[in-house]
Design the sequence.
């Protein structure tokens, strides 16, 4: 059994940047460093940060003093204002691609467009995006939900950075019939596009696909969907301990891809376990 890792898999620029920012903050400060929510969507990496003294909190009430790091996904600006009002040091690790989406939404709202966000409701990034529209944005998950929106004179569309390009095209098509003027900003990040294309291409060439990443990771979920759409049996796991030998019975080629928040050490462990199964003949 041959194990093939996708050309583009694992950490993206925004995640690497966020981890570097928080590591530097921890080294240079004697006071506690906290992350507001998960810095990135990978439970194992979050545990590793905790072991290094970088503590995750869910609310600012849990931070009596020190520094608070805003996650790579971005946050509602009101939270940043509240943190500063509490006398906390704010360290912003928001991904530059997410920042670009923030700017696009502010532009649309300022120019009077009815803002629509293609994304996952409740996701931290989408909450932060909607806040830039003054809370007036419509959030849709797919073309069917876009088709249900009322007619408006002008719609402006922005997309969560980890969505699929096909979904953006479909939603834009529906919105075009719902207004006189449609302005679309493709804010899907370049790394996401490359990772999705790489995963799709590999899935079409192998017998089984393994997608590695946090179950709370939106971009990892997209990878699973893309691989499943090729018809190749696909399994989403967080760690190598979830691999089951029965999945690979009779498989000659197994593909591996990983979400943008998945560290290389987890990918390496998964590949090592797959190679162990291959040497054992899949038993």
Sequence:
């Amino acid at each position: 059994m041959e194990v093939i890792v996708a050309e583009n898999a694992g950490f993206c620029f925004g995640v690497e940047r966020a981890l570097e920012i928080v590591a530097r903050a921890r080294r240079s400060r004697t006071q506690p460093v906290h992350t507001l929510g998960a810095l990135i969507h990978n439970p194992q990496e979050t545990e590793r940060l905790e072991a290094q003294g970088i503590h995750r909190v869910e609310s600012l009430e849990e931070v009596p003093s020190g520094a608070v790091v805003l996650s790579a996904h971005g946050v509602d600006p009101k939270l940043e204002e509240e943190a500063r009002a509490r006398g906390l040091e704010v360290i912003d690790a928001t991904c530059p691609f997410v920042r670009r989406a923030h700017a696009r939404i502010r532009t649309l709202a300022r120019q009077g467009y009815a803002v629509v966000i293609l994304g996952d409701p409740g996701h931290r990034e989408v909450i932060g995006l909607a806040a830039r529209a003054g809370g007036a944005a419509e959030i849709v998950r797919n073309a069917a939900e876009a088709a249900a929106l009322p007619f408006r004179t002008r719609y402006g569309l922005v997309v969560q950075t980890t969505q699929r390009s096909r979904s953006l095209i479909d939603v834009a098509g529906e919105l075009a019939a719902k207004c006189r003027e449609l302005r679309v900003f493709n804010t899907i990040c370049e790394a996401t596009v490359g990772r999705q294309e790489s995963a799709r291409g590999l899935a079409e060439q192998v017998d089984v696909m393994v997608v590695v990443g946090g179950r709370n990771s939106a971009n990892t979920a997209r990878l699973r969907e893309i691989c499943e759409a090729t018809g190749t049996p696909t399994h989403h796991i967080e760690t190598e301990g979830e691999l089951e030998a029965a999945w690979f019975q009779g498989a000659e080629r197994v593909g591996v891809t990983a979400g943008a928040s998945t560290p290389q050490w987890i990918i390496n462990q998964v590949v090592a376990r797959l190679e162990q199964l291959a040497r054992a003949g899949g038993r």
Observations:
- Residues 13-94 form a domain with the Rossmann fold fold (CATH 3.40.50.11270).
- The longest strand covers residues 152-159.
